[in-house]
Design a protein that fits this description.
Elements (H helix, E strand, L loop, with lengths): L15 E7 L2 H8 L2 H8 L3 E7 L12 E2 L9 E2 L1 H10 L8 H8 L5 E11 L2 H7 L4 E5 L5 E2 L9 E4 L8 H13 L9 H5 L18 E2 L2 E2 L9 H19 L1 H6 L4 H12 L1
The structure holds adenine (ADE).
The site of adenine has 12 residues, from strand 5 and helix 6.
Amino acid sequence: MQIYSRSSVAREEVILRITVLSGLPCYLESAIRNGHLRIAQERGAVEIDIVNLRDFAEDSYRTIDDEPYGGGGGMVLKVEPVWGALETLGAVSEGSEEEGEEKRSVEKPWVVLPTPKGARLTQRDFVRLSAKEHIVFLCSRYKGIDERIREWVDEELSIGDYVIGGGEAAALVMMEGITRLLAGVVGTKESVETDSFTCGLLSAPTYTRPEEFMGKRVPTVLLSGHHEEVRRWRRKQALALTLARRPDLLAELRLDDEDQILLSEVLGE
Ligand code: ADE
């Protein structure tokens, strides 16, 4: 198995490896071959592999789910195919914990289970996960997973307080969020740094040509060429928007002197 590590590449960008384990690989295939994820792969920032869990099924029907013990609706993801796939990737190994740790060395992949039972995903998780070398997303499209699988998972993450059809769409959300933080994927560093949430605020409104459309004009300050005024305007807009829509975010933020002034201006308007 080819292992990508930071030291094995001659470029400065971090190469992140992502493996998605899924019983529905076709769902993911077109998504990773298009748009943002395609660009990230072409630029060498990430390598994405999709692995069909059915390849690790133990019967000729390639079964990966079964009915729950004790009855009840839905199907449950089985332990054997998940173990087989994770073992092949070096994420788990047989024997004692210590032996496993020794065999794994530094390359042990970080196994993430997308699930509504997980911790709620934030931009901070993207930042943290973008520093990993190899992430494995384990997707389940079933009622749930056999509880024993949880022992092999490093982290459970939820994309929100709702239930969707399965982990694939959630894994895509996470892949998009993580890969756009990797060097070389998004146009400029500034563009990532000014994202909503990255600096704790919702981002300021943006405009592009034309200057006027059906009587609606672009704010004059953005046409002025005064970088300092533009920066101040954007900061004020970001504070105003966050105050109006997400006061909870604002409450978590340490505001500096300029922010306090801008915020009092917002409140006075
Ligand atoms: N699978 C189903 N619902 C989910 C959610 N909200 N987050 C992550 N994975 C899921």
